[in-house]
Prior knowledge:
By secondary structure, this protein is α+β, with helices and mostly antiparallel strands. It contains 8 helices and 6 strands; from the N terminus they run H-H-H-E-H-E-E-H-H-H-H-E-E-E. It has 2 domains: about 10-95; about 110-245, Beta-Lactamase (2-Layer Sandwich).
Amino acid sequence: MNPNPQPASDYASRAREETLRRDQLNQSLKLLRRVREAALAGDPIPTIEELMAMTGLLPTATDDPLTAVESLIEAATAEREASNRRIKLAKALSDASRGRPAATSAPAAAAPSPSSPQPVARSNVEGSPLVDEADRLAKISARDLDSLPYGAILLDESGRILSYNDTESRMARLPIEAVLGRNFFTEVAPCTRVKEFEGRFRALASGQGLPVVSFDFVFPFPFGAQRVAVLLTRGANPGTVIMALLRR
């Protein structure tokens, strides 16, 4: 267990920095769009070097200034989307570090009944707030899972739980010793036994799917349905999968 998880203030600071960066990108986009409109009206276009100095961005195409403007608009738009994801993640992690629940998994008691909302999964890797955590999760050791302010579970290829972090244990109200060695899909969270969840896990674990899978899943808890961002990635050790869960 890591006794020194990152404090909430660090995540809040990261969110503020990213917000400033996003504001700068928005200003750059406004400027570039004005330049494009002026160019289409016949006005002279700044040189590529001037455009780079004005925006702080590198064009992916430099054949001519107008092409550079278009490529800079694309670059700024993509970077703004990435910045939005990082802001969302930093805010969520800040909330989690302050003690607000960050993620949950559905215990066996939460299996859907006829009157319960059915679990829903929606694939959205690029829009997931956890997507920027994928590299970190792929390298993290089991003993460092407790340093994460969101739920994290280490599974083997069959779905057996090898490690279960403190956050997930607390939020799922399941003692760690009660879930270790049990199968996540059949014994701990049977509501996930759908192709949108277990099917994606099986494909990734077998090496047939993508190395990172992210989607939203609505867990039908007895105390109310909860929408959770789920990210699956192969673990640092062969034959393992890391599952991260962050409440939306």
